[in-house]
Amino acid sequence: MANTEKYKVILITGLGVILIILTFIFINYDPDKVEPENSLENKAAITPEKFKKDIDSIIYSFGIKEEWKIKVPENKVSISGDKGLILAQSIRIPVDIQTINLNLDITNYLEENGFISKTSEDPRSKDILIEILQVKDSLQTGYAKLNFIYSKDISRNVSETAIVLDSIEYIDFQNAENIIKSVEKFSVFLPIGNDKADYQSMIIDNRKNYLLKFYIGSNDDITSDFRTEMKENVIRQKVRTAAVNFPGVSGVVLYYPKGMKEFAEKISSEFKKNNFTVFSDTLFKAIKTEENKVSKLFEEIKKNSEKGIKVQFYTVSFSEKDFREFENRTEELKKPGYKFISINEAVKMISDQNPALDKDTLSVKNNIILK
């Protein structure tokens, strides 16, 4: 009898639990509700005009120009079945654009806005065709097609920029070492003080491209490396010492005030006798602002690129925080085609394009020729 009562209690409890579950399901059930993963059309609708504008914005962010959009002849690679599509474009792109990055940005945008895309690549030309489908009432219909065609006849008119980091010895050693080990391309002024031997070794051991800078001044300017009343044998010894101690240097930059050009040329000549490349300080644009250094640098690069300068030179003193911002934002310039290069690469570009120039002395006038 006791067992019978026990089974009744268990049965009644079980039925109560089931009733509670069914009641919860009934209350929360919505026959018109469709789960997001099964309903791409639940995404906010985009008008054809906004869609076209958004696609153009993505394309232009890679430095692609409006005039590169073309109508492909029928006997060439073309977009077929484009009747009824709101957008069907064939666009020439320079050979230095990686379609994998372009396709990724477009695909991400399409997915975020409820479209489905299919990308096919020509195995020989590497041209890509992106077919875009709209999902409505569970049906997939053609919406747009984008055909990107490589062309050797066009190029992105952007600069290559050589940046020299200054005053790195004033950054905490560990942070400075992390900066030097960055994968970004830049050069650095090597600190030459005897008390900065650890920084010198760290930069050289990491095979970072580096320059030396020297200041020229009057005999009263005790902070100058070369002073007007220095004996010639002292000057020669200082130059030879630099040559022996820093055989891997990419060159020297001489800073001097107005009125000392003749003496500066004498120092420059001595360096060239010891196989140094000498850079005029006028070659470099110094970013001196204390705030928003990265933004100022990027503004200068864009502005001078628009002027047609192909190779740009800058010096800048970054803090560790500034450099991290620089690292995080380089894609802003790399995406449309800008490149960061070392001083060695920049000098080679100028020399290759202007073989008649004095390769031992480079100044801002040399660079203007590259416009």
Summarize the structure.
With 371 residues, the protein is α/β, with parallel strands linked by helices. The chain has twelve helices and 15 strands. The C terminus is likely disordered.
Distance between the termini: 105 Å
Question: Which value, in Å, is the CA radius of gyration?
Answer: 32 Å
Mean pLDDT: 85
Question: Strand portion, in percent?
Answer: 15-25%
Helical residues, percent: 25-40%
Alpha-beta content class: alpha/beta
Taken from the alpha-carbon principal axes, the silhouette is: elongated
Order of helices and strands: HHEEHEEEEHEHEEHEHEEHEHHEHEH
Number of strands: 15
How many strands, which pairing sense, and closed or not: the largest β-sheet? 10 strands, parallel
**Uncertain segments of ≥5 residues (pLDDT<50)?**
33-42, 72-80, 363-371
Number of helices: 12
Keywords summarizing the entry:
371 residues; alpha/beta; ten-stranded parallel β-sheet; five-stranded mixed β-sheet; 15 strands; elongated
What this model shows, in words?
- The chain has 371 residues and is an alpha/beta fold.
- Helix content is 38%, strand content 21%.
- The protein has twelve helices and 15 strands.
- Strands 6, 7, 8, 9, 10, 11, 12, 13, 14 and 15 form a ten-stranded parallel β-sheet that branches.
Topology, element by element:
Elements: H1 2-28, H2 48-60, E1 69-70, E2 87-94, H3 99-112, E3 115-121, E4 128-136, E5 139-151, E6 160-165, H4 173-180, E7 187-189, H5 197-205, E8 210-217, E9 226-227, H6 232-245, E10 252-255, H7 261-273, E11 278-280, E12 285-287, H8 293-306, E13 311-316, H9 320-329, H10 331-334, E14 339-341, H11 343-353, E15 361-362, H12 364-368
Parallel strand pairs: 2-5, 6-7, 6-13, 6-14, 7-8, 8-9, 8-10, 10-11, 11-15, 12-13
Antiparallel strand pairs: 1-2, 3-4, 4-5
Helix pairs in contact: 4-5
